[in-house]
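Continuing the series of single-chain predictions for the mutant panel. This is the parent chain; the variants come on the following pages.
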Amino acid sequence: MRCLFCNSDDTQVIDTRLSDDKAIVKRRRRCPVCDKRFNTLEKIDLQMPAIIKSNKTRQEYDEEKIRSSIMLALHKRPVSLILVDEAINSIRQNILSTGKREIESRLVGDLVMDQLSKLDKIAYIRFASVYRSFKDITDFSDIIKQVGTN
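Parent structure:
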């Protein structure tokens, strides 16, 4: 690792720590030439699969779209952001575990529905009403019955 201050080609690792989720490695480094210290962060750069939409177009995986959809469904609901982050991480892990380079948007929607059903039943119904394009009140009553039996 090159020193940020004097551009020396060699630095020493003084300390190494993992983030709480063990996804990032933080290293404290020291340059033996100028004796300055600095931190580096190492994170795995994962290649997420492309998303095939229902109209057969392809888009890049966009975690912010997932987050905004979940947050919209959870609007004014008592769910912590930590639980939302955990749900999004679970969705990402499920997508990565497919091992595919392309996945259908339906899979992403189903994974979001699954996580929302665990987080908040009202948010689950809100999301389902848009995701499944409810047409009338019977669609709502069917999903409410389904939630009530779980």
